[in-house]
Write a structure and sequence with these properties.
mainly alpha; Heme Oxygenase, Chain A; 3 strands
């Protein structure tokens, strides 16, 4: 069994049960993947189609697939606060939009997709509050800070999610969620510990990161997304994987790198502090959630 998706007129993503690869249509002669994908999917081929879409987005931007959002070596309290503002905006968009998407699926009689959106809305409930709690732990007026700052990558994701949710068919929201949850698995325990050790001793300001990393439940969510998608019709699967590709493209786009230093945001963030910034201790002990 094969599944495929046209990334561009010059490039087609093909998935088998064991791998994904990119196919360049021949200049002359027949192209077996010229027509849109049809037929049923399977959990194996759909999983590799998702994996290939994320890898293709990285390839398109010449980015390593294990891109790290924030180097612990360069991390400071203000830079972590800025990154937490990004987490807030993406998680708050999920809280705001998923119930509406569930209602739209239900109104269309798409019971399986409505159940997927309803369950995910329940699972993601309160994650935006975790970001606010982390910001408060760092000594900031959390609500005021997130109203003032939206990192460019987070803004691009929220805009994409809003567009997918408002489309005539919101099925692309499945691909958006899958890409974010699959990419979250790149944030491993070592990176979480390094960030905790770079922050001042005694602070517990990585709650939101932990639930959106390999330490959280995203591995289970990724499996559920694959299972849900593989059972849909070919047109739905194509739309979902295309949305996954677009979401991953935002992740790897260097033009959306945080403008923390270039925009002079560090000084502005300091105006939102409720107490003096604690001294940072590079040898702090790892905090538990």
């Amino acid at each position: 069994m094969l599944e495929w998706l046209e990334i561009s007129p010059e490039l087609t993503l093909i998935a088998t049960a064991t791998r994904a690869y990119l196919h360049v249509p021949p200049a002359f002669g027949a192209n077996p993947f010229d027509a849109p994908m049809r037929g049923e999917g399977s959990s194996e081929t759909t999983r590799w189609l998702f994996e290939g879409a994320i890898a293709a987005a990285a390839r398109a931007l010449h980015a390593p697939q294990a891109t790290v959002e924030c180097s612990p070596r360069a991390l400071s309290v203000p830079s972590w606060a800025y990154r937490l503002a990004g987490y807030y905006h993406t998680t708050h968009a999920t809280r705001r939009l998923l119930p509406l998407v569930a209602q739209r699926f239900a109104a269309q009689g798409r019971t399986q997709l409505a159940r997927w959106a309803e369950e995910k809305a329940v699972e993601e409930a309160g994650h935006d509050e975790l970001a606010l709690r982390d910001l408060s732990q760092l000594g900031y007026r959390a609500h005021d800070l997130v109203e003032a700052f939206t990192p460019p990558r987070a803004a691009a994701w929220v805009t994409l999610f809003e567009r997918l949710a408002a489309a005539d068919d919101p099925v692309g929201c499945v691909g958006y969620a899958h890409a974010l949850e699959r990419l979250a698995l790149l944030r491993g325990p070592a990176e979480v510990r390094a960030i905790e050790q770079a922050l001042p001793q005694g602070l517990n300001a990585t709650r939101c990161l932990r639930v959106h990393s390999a330490l959280g439940s995203d591995s289970r969510h990724v499996h559920a997304n694959v299972t849900t998608t593989s059972g849909l019709c070919a047109d739905d699967r194509r739309a979902i994987v295309k949305a996954c590709y677009l979401t991953a493209h935002v992740y790897f786009d260097p033009a959306l790198d945080d403008d923390f230093h270039s925009a002079g945001i560090e000084a502005a963030i300091s105006t939102f502090r409720t107490r003096p910034q604690p001294a940072q201790d590079a040898h702090r002990t790892t905090q538990t959630q």
